[in-house]
Request: fold
Amino acid sequence: MERENRVSITVIRRLPKYYRYLGDLLRKGINRISSQELSKMTGFTASQIRQDLNNFGGFGQQGYGYNVEELHDQLGKILGLDRVYNTVIAGAGNLGQAVANYKGFQDAGFKILALFDKNPKLIGLKIRDIEIRDVDELEKYIKENNVEIGIITTPKESAQDVADIYSRSGIKGIWNFAPADLRVDDEMIVENVHLNESLFTLSYFLNNKSDYIRD
Ligand code: NAI
Reply:
């Protein structure tokens, strides 16, 4: 999407939260919301919300607020959730299987076509209806099936090898769960997930209840 000004990563990281809350409102049949009400729900200030959304065009109207369905649709488009992404998982252990088992990713457009592993005991098994294949076939499979997103749930020692396979077979984005800093070329987008960091933040809040500024 072409825009005059580039949007900061912090704003982009808030968009999924707006999208989620708007989806909840839609399901409750609420059609209109003010930035003040959105502020109460999300914990961001009303002016922050207006500023964030203004980055993408004037969605709201003074005195009216936002049309929930329209804003939800627009944010969905901005987030690229109005299409399907063919996705594969490398590493079909505990976490890889859990990710494959969660239907919500597929419902959001991230279609998991196959899992790949090097353990012969796992190859041929199915998670829901998704087959676990031999990692030796990964490169060929990606090329033949127009796969855009590669998930990494291997041990960290294998993560770079998998990232290299993803890079040379045309994957555009990696969702990396392995605790490894991947080296990839500039065109590849890597999104790292660290559940530990969230858990350690919880631990901080448990131990320092009032010692932080909410933003
Ligand atoms: P696991 O040992 O159950 O599964 C790993 C799987 O990867 C195994 O089936 C193994 O055969 C396979 N594997 C190893 N090398 C491979 C290769 N070169 N190609 C394809 N498959 C390969 O481990 P678990 O518990 O599922 O964890 C997986 C990864 O996720 C680990 O790196 C772990 O540290 C990480 N993790 C990250 C979390 C996060 O918040 N980011 C949370 C939990 C785990």
Strands lie at 32-33, 66-67, 85-90, 110-117, 126-127, 130-134, 149-152, 173-176, 189-192.
